[in-house]
Design goal:
There is one protein chain. This protein has 103 residues and is of the alpha+beta class. β4 and β5 form a beta hairpin. The protein has a domain of 61 residues: 2-Layer Sandwich (Nucleotidyltransferase, domain 5). The chain is elongated. The strands form two sheets. A four-stranded mixed sheet has the order 3-2-1-6. The chain has a two-stranded antiparallel sheet with strand order 4-5. 12% of the residues are buried. It starts with a strand and ends in a 12-residue tail after the last strand.
Amino acid sequence: MAPLFLGFDLSTQQLKAVLLSADSDIVHESAVHFDRDLAHYQTVNGAIKGPDDGEVTSPVLMWIEAIDLIFERMKASNVDFSAIAAVSGAGQVPVVIDIALDQ
């Protein structure tokens, strides 16, 4: 059996998974959009604002639930998990910290 390679991309608004063959052909693609698919977290664009001005957070449990949902969708699509030879992940979420200094 030819090996498959699973990649995850965690962004502000979604978790995406792409399963590739050794020839870089896409075997399966799934995405979980936080606001729509995990609405019980009540995020807006994948984040929760406040309570302090400028404070924005994302629930880590939401990310874990998103991984579970990706695997459920892969299973429903009959992905052969035993063929996955490697898993990789990327997260390109920009972070800006604004610090006011009293002078």
